[in-house]
Amino acid sequence: MNSQGRPWLGKAVGDLLRNEAYIGVLTYNRKSRKLGAKVTRNPRELWIRIENAIEPIVHRDAFRRAQKIMCEGRVSIPEEEMLLRLRKVLMKKGRLSKTIINSSPGLPSMSSYLLHFGALRNIYRLIGYNSNQEWFDKYAAHQRWTALQLSNAARLREALERLGRRATLNASTGCLRIDNAVNVVFRAARCRKYENRPLRWTLQYRVRWPKGWVVADRLDEKNEAIFDYVLMPSAWLTFSRRMFWFSKEVHKGRTIKRFDTFEALSRFLIECVGKEKPS
C-alpha cells in the first residue's frame, strides 16, 4: 500500500531514511540550554557522534544509497508552477487547508509556499481563492491589535527602565513583569453593541492570567480604532462563557480607571507600581 492516503506513513518513511539512529549512530550535544535561557543549536563541530552505539535496524549501505537518491531527486519548482499545481488541487478538492496542501501528491509543502509567497492570505489571493475572507479579516485585525499591545508594553518597559526599574516582557502572553513583583497584562477589549442596551466591552479568557493589573485597549463601536484605555486589577475579572464583560465606566459597582491616552495611563501606572510590594 502506498502512503498517499496516509500522510503519517510518508512522514514515518522519511524519518527512517534520514535518522542515523536507524543505522546505529547516536548524536549528542546538538542543542544546549543555560539556566533561564532559551535552547540554542550548537555548531556541527561540537556534536558528539557515537558509531555502533545501538543495534542497527537498517543496513548502512542501503541508508547511504537512499540519502544519495533523495539529494539527487530534489527538484526546484518555478513559482508559477507551484501556483498552477495549487489551483489544480483547489479545483479538485473545492477548498484548501494546510492538511490538504501537505498531503497532496506532487504539491510542495505549506512551509515552501509560505517561504516563496509570504502570508497564507497572499497565497490564496494569487490563485483567486477568496474563501474564508471574513476569517482573514478578523485574523488581520487580531494581529494589528496584538502588535499595538506589545508596542505599548515595550513603551512602558522603556519608561520604567529609564527610572531604574527592572522590567521584562513576555511577548507570547503580553505580560510585563516589573521588579519581579508586579504583573501588567495588555489586552484589547472588543465593543459589543446590542439594541436598546448600553455599550459593553469584553475580554477573552486566558489560561493562567497572572495576578496584577490589566491594561485594556478599549475599541470603538465598530472595533476599528481605539476608544480609550482602561486599567483594572485582575482580581476583578470574573469570566462567563470565557468572556469578561464590563460597561463604559463601571464593573459591578467598581469604578473603572479610564484614560484618553496611553501616556496618561502609563504615568498613573508607574506611580501605582512604585507603591506595590513584592509578591
How would you describe what is shown here?
The protein has 279 residues and is of the alpha+beta class. The chain is 37% helix and 22% strand. The protein is built from eight helices and 14 strands. It has helices spanning 7-18, 60-72, 79-93, 98-103, 110-117, 120-126, 133-162, 262-273, and strands at 26-28, 31-32, 40-41, 48-50, 167-170, 175-178, 182-192, 200-204, 213-219, 226-233, 243-247, 250-251, 254-255, 257-259. Strand 6 (175-178) and strand 7 form a beta hairpin. The chain is flat. The chain starts with 6 loop residues before the first helix and ends in a 6-residue tail after the last helix. The model has no long low-confidence stretch (mean pLDDT 80).
Rg, alpha carbons:
26 Å
> In angstroms, what separates the terminal alpha carbons?
61 Å
Percentage of residues assigned to helices = 25-40%
- The count of β-strands is 14
Mean pLDDT: 80
What kind of sheet is the major sheet?
8 strands, mixed
How many helical stretches?
8
Q: What overall geometry do the principal axes of the alpha carbons give?
A: flat
**Strand portion, in percent?**
15-25%
H/E element order: HEEEEHHHHHHEEEEEEEEEEH
**Structural class estimated from helices and strands:** alpha+beta
